[in-house]
């Protein structure tokens, strides 16, 4: 019996890093989701990019609450990467598109800002093992106010304009 569907000759095997597959463009995102992706990328980039997160949280939340939000974001990212189902994929800080893993993270953050705990948990489950997903949502709930305030800041819809950088794997 002949198979009805055949892959064309020369079709490459499935990509090993499917979480990086582009699913949209940053300019299409609402401010909360945009901020979540930019901060995920900045945290993974480290150095000055990671320090930007703390400065921004302090700017919108005040010094003490900003420091707490920064610690919570650090804990959330650490939990995400240590309990990931597979390596979490991200695009470079200046890339104009975003991938599937970044989308799931952004939607988790957006859900917690809307106090939709069930949706936040579902998005967390796509990225993390089951035992870590709910604690991650609990951490993210503490960040909802910071992301809402960031989204309301003038100029919050800015997106990076420099060229695309390669995709990185973060463990």
How does the helix and strand content classify structurally? mainly alpha
Give the amount of beta strand, in percent.
5-15%
Task: State Rg.
Answer: 17 Å
Numbering strands along the chain, what is their spatial order in the largest sheet? 1-3
Mean pLDDT: 88
Reported for the largest beta sheet, the result is: 2 strands, antiparallel
Helix content: 55-70%
Low-confidence stretches: 157-171
Instruction: Output the helix-strand order.
Output: EHHHEEHHHHE
Number of domains: 1
Coarse morphology: globular
How many distinct beta strands? Answer: 4
Number of helices: 7
End-to-end separation: 44 Å
- The oligomeric state of the chains shown is single chain
Quick overview:
The protein has one domain (22-153).
Write a concise keyword list for the protein shown above.
single chain; two-stranded antiparallel sheet; 7 helices; globular
How is this structure best described in words?
The chain is mainly alpha-helical and 171 residues long. Helices cover 56% and strands 8% of the residues. The strands form two sheets. A two-stranded antiparallel sheet has the order 1-3. It has a two-stranded antiparallel ribbon with strand order 2-4. It is globular and about 65 Å long. The termini are far apart. The model is unreliable at 157-171 (pLDDT under 50).
């Amino acid at each position: 019996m002949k198979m009805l569907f055949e892959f064309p000759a020369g079709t490459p095997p499935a990509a090993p890093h499917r979480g990086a597959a582009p699913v949209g463009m940053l300019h299409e995102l609402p401010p909360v989701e945009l901020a979540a992706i930019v901060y995920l990328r900045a945290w993974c980039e480290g150095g000055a990019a990671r320090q930007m997160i703390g400065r921004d949280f302090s700017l919108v939340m005040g010094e003490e609450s900003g420091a707490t939000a920064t610690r919570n974001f650090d804990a959330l990212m650490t939990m995400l990467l240590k309990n990931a189902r597979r390596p979490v994929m991200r695009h470079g800080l200046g890339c104009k598109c975003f991938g599937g893993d970044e989308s799931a993270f952004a939607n988790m953050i957006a859900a917690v800002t809307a106090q939709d705990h069930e949706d936040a948990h579902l998005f967390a489950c796509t990225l993390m093992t089951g035992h870590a997903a709910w604690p991650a949502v609990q951490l993210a709930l503490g960040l909802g106010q910071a992301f809402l305030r960031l989204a309301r800041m003038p100029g919050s819809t800015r997106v990076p304009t420099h060229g695309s950088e390669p995709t990185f794997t973060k463990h």
